[in-house]
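Subject: Predicted fold for Hemoglobin, 134 residues

User T.R. writes:
Posting the sequence so we have a shared reference for the thread.
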Amino acid sequence: MTNPLAQFEVSRDDIARVVSRFYAQVRRDAVLGPVFAAHVDDWPAHEEKIVRFWANAILREREYDGNPMMVHKRAGDVTSAHFAIWLDLFDKVLAQELPDETSRRWSALAHRIGRALKMGLEMRAPQGAVPNLR
Ligand code: HEM
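User M.O. replies:
I've generated the structure tokens; pasting them so everyone works from the same file.
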């Protein structure tokens, strides 16, 4: 493996291909599409940022220093119900694009991150607001 800190072996080209296929599906998705359309107008810039995010998370290439938790909370219309749809689509693209082992490792990482982001969103209630106990 070229990078001893990498979580598993995947190339940058693989990451870029997965990201591009994934967001092509997201744009077509009836539920996720409109949420992204409301926030992203420069798709190439968004996809480049997401490639850097995954290169950081998987390959430990230190080139993303954003704060996804804050970005998702601030978006205001990203809900915890969206995560199952997002992860399901992501898993399908991984399975189509990558060898089984790589796909499984990346999926496990995405689900771990997704759980953390979702928990963060569920704690979003503004100060003084009545908690949503549904
Ligand atoms: C494991 C699940 C997810 C991961 C790893 C992830 C990752 C990211 C990252 C890294 C960004 C860029 C943050 C930045 O600007 O620095 C982002 C932005 C965004 N994500 Fe997610 N995301 C996930 C789930 C979701 C879900 C379920 C939605 C629901 C629709 C969503 C909607 C968005 C939107 C709309 C933006 C753009 C926000 C903006 O630029 O204003 N994400 N995501």
